[in-house]
Design brief:
It is a single chain. With about 425 residues, the protein is of the alpha+beta class. It is built from 10 helices and 22 strands.
Length: about 425
């Protein structure tokens, strides 16, 4: 039957509850232990809490209704659809299923009228098509995901996190979870001098987390220092009060292993990826935990606050709209162009049994030609504001040449495209 549901309103206007139809499929996992052999525990399908069109919910059925799609987790509200009078009992019958506008677009590749409600044999319930009173603000492949997500922030003891953007991501996402399914934990660690206390705190926290929800998405951030020469992240204080480096991860395998998606954000200086040995260690960690994606930064003195727009774009496009991070990353960067003046961005993702690594560099002819850094002063004569406008030596090689304005100086700098680089167009193509 057509299923409905209620969700608290999120906007200042509009409203809507929810309606459920039969689920076409569920994911399941075999488990062992106290569970009877052969029994399957099915992962619940978390239907979105808000209409894919108006992005709002409703506190009561009389106010509005959210119809739950039988083919995907999306929902649509009654206020966005013009339903013929007197059809409510019919569309809520046991043998009726509902298809959202996005699934209709995907199925009717060459275009077709939208009827929404169907009998089991595929026959449309309504005699005329449903008029939609809204536009689709997202891609037709997007959704407003309500799959449980947990944020875990691992912070080196005495590390200043006042400007950290990570809590912002949780605050931004929380209004989408009106019935729970989202948590934020910040764990201060000192693995060197108080390793026992840290491990006990982590075990207790993880035990509580695993008992409270099946966390389908885990987002971990590590805020720490890194050794400038070796690239190792700091793990705490040694007995002589000196900071000591540590290369192992500080997370628990079981929480990550049971998640459908797991993301790691490294809010630390760039030596962890600029040093070949520490970067190789990071790659092994990504493969070991089978992390969906890892984001790191190359700036030698990285400022985490500059990554705020990138992290919020990730929260919206990957966690809310459920777009694969590689498809969304171009648009995420387009919303974070000032970050590009500060640092390059490294994205590591798993591709079957291998790891895919991409380095994203922001380019600007006047300040970062082909991703390089134009010095603030001429290195030969010391003049500031010394560079003439760039010119291209030849259209074929696209090499930018800058010459010093000082008439007695012959210094020039050349910047060419990095080998194997691909230019990203600004903005996201509607592929997710």
């Amino acid at each position: 039957m057509t299923r409905t549901k209620q969700t608290a309103k999120k906007s200042n206007g509009g409203s809507a509850p929810r309606v459920n139809l039969k689920l076409t499929s569920t994911n399941s996992k075999h488990v062992s232990g106290d569970v009877e052999q052969g029994m399957e525990i099915c992962k619940p399908v978390h239907h979105n809490g808000f209409c894919i069109l108006c992005q709002d919910g409703s506190a009561s059925f009389a106010e509005n209704t959210l119809f739950m799609c039988d083919h995907c987790p999306r929902v649509m509200c009654r206020l966005c659809m013009e339903l013929p009078p007197g059809t409510e009992d019919t569309i809520l019958s046991e043998d009726v299923t509902f298809r959202c506008i996005c699934c209709h677009i995907a199925m009717a590749k060459h275009g077709a009228p939208y009827y929404g409600f169907y009998y089991a044999d595929g026959t449309a319930i309504l005699e005329s098509f449903i008029r939609i009173h809204a536009s689709l603000e997202f891609s037709s492949k997007a959704q407003l995901s309500a799959a449980p997500v947990i944020f875990i922030h691992l912070v080196l003891v005495d590390f200043e996190t006042t400007a950290s953007p990570f809590p912002l991501a949780h605050s931004f996402l929380k209004p989408y979870f009106t019935n729970g399914g989202i948590e934020y934990f910040e764990i201060t660690y000192d693995i060197i001098s108080v390793a026992g206390a840290y491990c006990q705190a982590v075990r207790q926290t993880l035990k509580a987390l695993k008992n409270s929800f099946l966390w389908e998405r885990v987002v971990v951030a590590i805020s720490t220092h890194t050794d400038n020469d070796e690239g190792d992240p700091f793990a705490g204080y040694s007995s002589d009060d000196g900071l000591k480096q540590y290369g192992a991860t500080a997370t628990d395998d079981s929480l990550l292993d049971h998640a459908d998606e797991s993301y790691l954000w490294l809010f630390c200086c760039g030596s962890i990826v600029n040093n070949s040995n520490s970067f190789a260690g990071l790659q092994r960690t990504v493969v070991h935990h089978n992390l969906s994606a890892t984001i790191a930064f190359t700036a030698r003195r990285f400022q985490p606050s500059f990554a705020s727009h990138l992290l919020l774009a990730f929260t919206q496009q990957v966690l809310v709209e459920h777009c694969p991070i590689r498809l969304a990353f171009g648009d995420m960067l387009a919303q974070s162009y000032k970050l590009g003046r500060h640092t390059d961005v490294i994205l590591l993702t798993m591709l079957e049994a291998s790891i895919q690594i991409s380095k994203f560099t922001w380019g600007d002819v006047e300040t970062r030609p082909w991703g390089g850094f134009l010095p603030i002063q001429c290195p030969t004569c010391g003049w500031t504001d010394s560079w003439r406008s760039a010119f291209v030596r030849t259209a074929r090689d696209k090499i930018y040449v800058f010459e010093c304005k000082n008439p007695t100086c012959v210094q020039s700098l050349r910047f060419g495209p990095p080998e194997g680089a691909t230019m990203l167009s600004p903005g996201r193509k509607l592929g997710c």
